[in-house]
């Protein structure tokens, strides 16, 4: 089979490579300085604790607190998470795939959070103390376990709101059982109540003073 000969290069008496060098190469744009990164897009609402939840990683990322309740756009790749509001980037985070954890920028928090938000540790503890000493102990433990108490508000509110379905005596017993299990979570306490496990072998447990039995749990006086 005969080799194809380009009529244009024959007429100009030049090679295709030389034609590229002479007329086309200078018209090309330079290659990008960085490799192309595949990004994903997701619209999410900033929660009342000024974090958005990326379900793909089960991880929370902070935004400036003034964007609480606003609809945000997440643009994320393998290494970074960018958060936009009205086409303006308001937060940039290194992507973290740690499940049920928080990435919080200190500057995103209000300077006087207790005075500027509807919820604060003392208000949660006051509510919990009205439901029972073990409810208060569990809420205090959860607040203590976060780097910033604000990160624990969602879990605490979930536990306290269980009184909408279960009476406070059962909730207090369930929190006592959760302390025995060392399972301080909304899902764990809800599971105890739904399966009526709060009274299971309850007589076998000691009934010490909660604060004395758990010296590392902050009482409601801590946040005053």
What's the mean pLDDT score? 81
Q: Which structural class do the helices and strands define? A: alpha+beta
Strand order within the widest beta sheet: 1-4-5-6
Rounded to an integer, what's the Rg over CA atoms? 29 Å
General form = elongated
What is the terminal separation in angstroms? 92 Å
How many domains, in number, for the residues?
A: 2
Low-confidence stretches: 202-217
Q: How many beta strands in the DSSP annotation?
A: 7
Work out the helicity level. 25-40%
The major beta sheet can be summarized as: 4 strands, antiparallel
**Percent of residues in β-strands:** 15-25%
Task: Name the helix and strand elements from N-terminus to C-terminus, one letter apiece.
Answer: HHEEEEEEEHHHHHHH
Written description of the protein model:
The chain folds into two domains: 40-105, no CATH class; 114-205 and 215-223, no CATH class. With 224 residues, the chain is of the alpha+beta class. The termini are far apart. The protein is built from nine helices and seven strands; from the N terminus they run ααβββββββααααααα. The strands form two sheets. The chain has a four-stranded antiparallel beta sheet with strand order 1-4-5-6, with no helix packed on it. A three-stranded mixed beta sheet has the order 2-3-7, with no helix packed on it.
């Amino acid at each position: 089979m005969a080799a194809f000969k380009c009529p244009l290069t024959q007429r100009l008496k030049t090679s295709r490579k030389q034609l590229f060098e002479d007329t086309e190469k200078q018209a090309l744009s330079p290659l990008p300085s960085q490799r192309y990164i595949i990004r994903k897009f997701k619209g999410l609402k900033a929660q009342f604790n000024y974090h958005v939840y990326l379900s793909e990683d089960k991880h929370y990322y902070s935004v400036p607190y003034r964007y609480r309740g606003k609809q945000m756009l997440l643009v994320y790749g393998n290494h970074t998470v960018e958060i936009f509001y009205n086409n303006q980037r308001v937060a940039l985070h290194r992507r973290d795939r740690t499940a049920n954890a928080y990435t919080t920028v200190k500057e995103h928090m209000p300077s006087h959070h207790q005075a500027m938000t509807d919820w604060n540790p003392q208000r949660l503890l006051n509510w919990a103390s009205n439901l029972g000493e073990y409810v208060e102990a569990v809420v205090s433990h959860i607040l203590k376990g976060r780097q910033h108490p604000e990160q624990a508000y969602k879990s605490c509110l979930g536990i306290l709101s269980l009184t909408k379905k279960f009476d406070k005596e059962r909730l207090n017993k369930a929190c006592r059982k959760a302390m025995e299990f060392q399972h301080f979570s909304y899902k764990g306490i809800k599971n105890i109540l739904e399966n009526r496990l709060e009274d299971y072998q309850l007589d076998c447990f000691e009934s010490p003073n909660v604060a004395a039995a758990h010296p590392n749990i902050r009482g409601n006086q801590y946040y005053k």
